[in-house]
Write a structure and sequence with these properties.
The protein is α+β, with helices and mostly antiparallel strands. It has a single domain, classed as Glutaredoxin (3-Layer(aba) Sandwich), CATH 3.40.30.10. About 45% of the residues lie in helices and about 15% in strands. It contains five helices and four strands, in the order βαβαββααα. Strands 2-1-3-4 form a four-stranded mixed beta sheet, sandwiched between helices. It is globular.
Length: about 120
Amino acid sequence: MVIKVFLASSSGSTAIKKKQQDVVGFLEALKIDYAPLDIASNEDNRMWMRENVPGEKKPTNGIPLPPQIFNEEMYCGDYDTFFEAKEDNTVYEFLGLTPPPGSKRKVAEEEEQEEGEEDRED
């Protein structure tokens, strides 16, 4: 599975640049493989991104802004939903990936399973 991050290499907006850097930096810190796809210099990338962002996720003008995140063909979300997942420690679920062993979310899941098994034993 490849995480696709649609970015604009030549955005005039500092807000968009910061959001893109935040997403890419976080993925790199977690050692998650991703493919940066430039929508500024590649018309095919721009058209694919625009066509594949779900209608309810598009802004009122109909043109989604970068960064937009996909797992292969599956839409994961935009910066705002990525940020929420980051704050909730659910980035792996947001990306449609299995958390690695030892990650906070994976440890919490294992503890919940163990507690459930203990409850059944009582």
